[in-house]
């Protein structure tokens, strides 16, 4: 152990050595030319580097001469925001570009420590202020940077693994904080006459509140979908290894009001993806469809709703490929008029190409979702696995689904009426949309008891309707546009023919109606289902 006397001597020696060094350096500065000083300076650096055991990596905010914002800087910033907000003492808060939240990050000249695989690293945040900045009419922006410091023995691990981890994590955090967007395609005619800057897609902020927690669906099915989505989103390497484009097709089918669109919103919220809602009837032709595909970004869900209405995909593939697909058909045609006068010339083969052609692999991970009310009407080529990898049937509400809705809408998890509701739900077909509507209080005074009794009434009505409802209605001919169609109405298991006029009134036997698409539901032909029963 050093005695106070030897310590004193040590300090004295060190002090005089530094003083001599400073003196020599001052002489060198004064009498030696600049070149020599530089030469000596570089040697000093090398000497320091030899003894200094740390390595530093600097990540600047701007890159290149055009001061382009560095992607790496913003990713590091996002990565450190989670860490530093807990550790650092001086933070700054900003609303980032496209961000919905206030982001906290380290303030300038702040340091934080991070640990990765048991190795400690240090991050410093700082900035370079240009001297000409204050005097200039167009001041240069401050050039901020992050500096990473670590021991040189961890060089390989840090440069190969840690930095990649920081960038990936940062990108993920950025994406989660980013305001998500809901895009829709503009019809090509509207682009032609408007500003040149307008693209094929226009967007608004996507703010649908649906989540898997608020979705009425059997828990097993929910878990299956969330696991499928998570596995997909983490399988970049797997898809690359098996040589498959990183995308997944979902086909959601089921009656109206069973939550297909809600499920899409929940999927987008779950994965923090943007949504591209593709209106096929506004797409001019296959080329435009391809351009739209190229215009989408990765980590997005491309949705084509009511695919059976957008295009006629019921016939043989060959036949349809020859014929431009008619966009004027379908149950929701009124709301989905083609905006182009010539209508859509998109063909089935164009659509198949869109889903899994060569272009579909451009730009990274994507989920393509089709929804339909009539899955059986779709061409098998469209729905086969590989194109639509996962088929999800959205069905009528069951008791499990009801419990989710009761919790969402009324904050009720148990109630004396639940047993009765469970029994009625087995006997009546009711969509989650109808359950939701009944459970929603209509006035400030309506409480859970009132809403639940409303639902019981609706269930009883649906039960009676189900008892009286004809089981199946078939249109026998749809070939000729003007010819009346003979319709066979069957009640339960006993088919019965009735004769009717073109207006649809019955006289018994078989019924003649105006041509209607095949197959057709009884409520589309006869506004009142009770009337249908009365006819029989
Ligand atoms: N499974 C569900 N869980 C929660 N809410 C639901 C569900 N299904 C329907 N709803 C409610 O009903 C409304 C209509 O549902 P949604 O639009 O998702 O039905 P859809 O199946 O897409 O119908 P369509 O075939 O007519 O497009 C939603 O706004 C939502 O509030
Ligand atoms: Mg829908």
From TrEMBL:
GO biological process: response to stress
Cofactor(s) recorded in Swiss-Prot or TrEMBL: Mg(2+)
Catalyzed reaction equations: ATP + H2O = ADP + phosphate + H(+)
Region (Disordered): 322-344
SMART domains noted in UniProt: AAA
Family: Belongs to the AAA ATPase family. BCS1 subfamily.
Protein known as: AAA domain-containing protein
Organism expressing this protein natively: Heracleum sosnowskyi
